[in-house]
Amino acid sequence: MNRKKEGYSASPKTILLITLLICLMPLSLGNVRALQTFPTQTEITDYSKAQTFIITVFNDGPKTEDVTMSIDPYSFYLKDHIKVEPESFRLAPNSRRNVELTSSLPSSLSPETHHFRIMPVTKDQKGGVADFTFTVPGEARHDLSVSQVKAGDIMQDEPIIIDIFLNNKGNVIAWATPHITIHNASGIVAEIESESIIQIMPRSSYNLTFRHELFEPGPGVYRIAVRFDYDGGKLSTEEKAAAFSIKETAEEHKEVPWIIWPVAGLAAFLAVIFAVWAGRREPSKARRIRALMKRIERLEKETSRMVLETDAFVRRSNHWLNERFGEGNYEFR
Predict the structure, then answer these.
(1) Which mean pLDDT values do the consecutive 10-residue runs of the chain (333 residues) have?
(2) Measuring CA to CA, how many Å separate 68 from each of 41, 78, 91, 293, 301?
(3) Are 276 and 323 in a shared domain?
(4) Residues 176 and 243 in one domain
(5) 157 and 110 in one domain?
(6) Residue 106's domain spans which residues?
(7) Are residues 131 and 83 both part of a single domain?
(8) Phi first, then psi: what are they for 151, rounded to 5°?
């Protein structure tokens, strides 16, 4: 009696479970390597006094990490007033390190809520952010304006370079978002929206440059309009505009007058006739010199060939002599 071989067959539920585990595995592995920071929020109640704070960095990953305490770019204006120690260190797996922050904040800071954000980073990951906040009392006055917009004339294959000059006359930091539109006679041809927030310090100027490439722009006169929203979108600057022109790509792309083509053809024909005539009138002495140079070149090639053949004969002779009379006893030169 023949028996049928029985194999293992997975049920649909088992296949689904295995697939789910495979999909979730990268997520679980990604969470293994993480730097944790405690506490994440700290309020400095009396900013006028020098104070010391401790944050703890914990490495719950599987390997030793070289850690650097990185200050958020928007908090750079406070870095000279808050000392971080140590700024970098090595952290073993499942271990922690205390980082000391000593604040010495000036009384001249703008009347608003300030944030000093710092986080541990390695070469391939960022840890949790520790946010230190404090509020300077006083009446906030917002006054941001666009003082000037510049855009030079360009060719069709060139990007638009937009220079914008901002002036913050207020006594608080302006966190501004730009809105730029480009118009021609038909209406808006492009809008430049940026999600990045620009930080303009109180009573200071700020210049920035945008580079933008229009899609198949036609030649003509264009207009750039610029405004900035700030104070959380509650306020906006007055719109500032500038005009610029887009010219044809290059002068050589313009249509060539029809008379140029027959003139160019006639000039080329005359150049060929002159070259043939000059060759026939070449002095016989020059022709003899060229023939002699060619003969010398042939002799050099023949000499090189003979040297190579002689060298090959010497090597074959030495090989025959060594085989017949012993290695190293004879050498043909």
Answers:
(1) 45 58 50 78 91 95 93 95 95 95 93 96 93 95 96 91 96 96 92 88 94 85 95 94 87 53 67 64 65 76 70 66 55 48
(2) 20, 18, 10, 73, 69
(3) yes
(4) yes
(5) no
(6) 32-135
(7) yes
(8) -150, 115
Q: What is the dihedral of CA 110, 230, 146, 139, to 10 degrees?
A: -30
Domain presence at residue 16: no
Closest CA to 174 of 264, 125, 110: 110
The strand pairing partners of 135, in sequence order, are 113
Number of domains in the chain: 3
Give every CB contact of residue 206 below 8 A, 6+ residues apart in sequence: 165, 166, 167, 168, 198, 200
pLDDT value of residue 270: 73
| pLDDT score recorded for residue 288 | 73
Q: Does residue 187 lie in a domain region?
A: yes
Specify whether the CB–CB gap between 41 and 115 falls below 8 A.
Answer: no
Whose CA is closest to 62, among 30, 86, 89, 39?
30
Residue with tokens 């929020």: 41
CA distance 58 to 53: 17
Examine the domain organization and report whether 122 and 176 are in the same domain: no
From residue 202, give the alpha-carbon distance in Å to each of 10, 141, 177, 257.
Answer: 69, 10, 16, 61
Q: What is the CATH number of the domain that holds 94?
A: 2.60.40.10
The two tokens of residue 244 are: 């610029």
Q: Is the domain of 170 the same as that of 195?
A: yes
